[in-house]
Design goal:
The protein is mainly α. It is built from 5 helices and 3 strands. It has a 3-stranded antiparallel sheet. α2 packs across α3 and α2 crosses α4. The radius of gyration is 19 Å and the shape is globular.
Length: 101
């Protein structure tokens, strides 16, 4: 599944939670309500995405970001950004032994 990056070290997520006066547990419950499977996102995962310490995570699954965004009734691009795609640029390689004179 595709990954996304949290924006600005999680600050937009923290601000959205603060505006709505939500704790990690409360946001987790809201993600369960919007999840078609009913699983939602754990408070620990939300904590890692909103955190600033050594356990903070910069990236997450697109599904996780979508559930959090829906639960916060916010816009995905305000909270997360897409991962950069892999470069297709070719790397200059040395010539093989057969090509050497």
């Amino acid at each position: 599944m595709p990954k996304v990056l949290r924006n600005d070290e999680g600050r937009p997520l923290r601000n959205a939670m603060k505006r709505q006066q939500l704790t990690l547990d409360e946001l987790s419950e809201k993600t369960k309500a919007v999840d078609p499977e009913g699983r939602g996102v754990s408070p620990a995962t939300i904590g890692r995405l909103t955190g600033r310490g050594t356990t903070a995570r910069e990236r997450t699954e697109l599904r996780t970001a979508w559930l959090i965004t829906e639960a916060l009734d916010d816009r995905m691009h305000a909270l997360f950004s897409r991962m950069p795609s892999h470069s297709t640029a070719t790397v200059e390689r040395s010539s093989s032994d057969a090509e050497e004179e």
